[in-house]
Amino acid sequence: MRALVDIPDDHIRKLAELCERTNRPRTALIREAIADYVARHQPGASTDAFGLWGARGADGVAFQRKVRAEW
């Protein structure tokens, strides 16, 4: 599918810099960005959490309630 999209000039400049750095065409980077966005917004997709709970994939609040209930 082809699409006509308005992209701000500063994003176009940054995209051009990324194309030069990675030696990849703009179309490939845009397709990759869309695929990444769609994957991250699928039902059940994990969020990019960080810190203590990031790698566990657990609900920190639920764990906290469980631990406090043991007191």
Notes on the structure:
This protein is mainly alpha-helical. It has helices at residues 9-22, 26-40, 60-69. The chain has one domain (9-69). The protein contains three helices and no strands.
Topology of helices and strands:
Elements: H1 9-22, H2 26-40, H3 60-69
Q: Given the structure, what is the number of helices?
A: 3
Question: In whole angstroms, how far apart are the ends?
Answer: 58 Å
What is the element string, with H for helices and E for strands? HHH
Q: Pairing-aware structural class of the strands and helices?
A: mainly alpha
Question: Which range does the strand content fall in?
Answer: under 5%
The count of strands amounts to 0
Largest sheet: none
Shape: elongated
**Domains, number:** 1
Q: Which residue ranges are poorly predicted, with pLDDT under 50 across at least 5 consecutive positions?
A: none
**Estimated radius of gyration:** 20 Å
Mean pLDDT: 84
Percentage of residues assigned to helices: 40-55%
Tags for this model:
single chain, mainly alpha, elongated
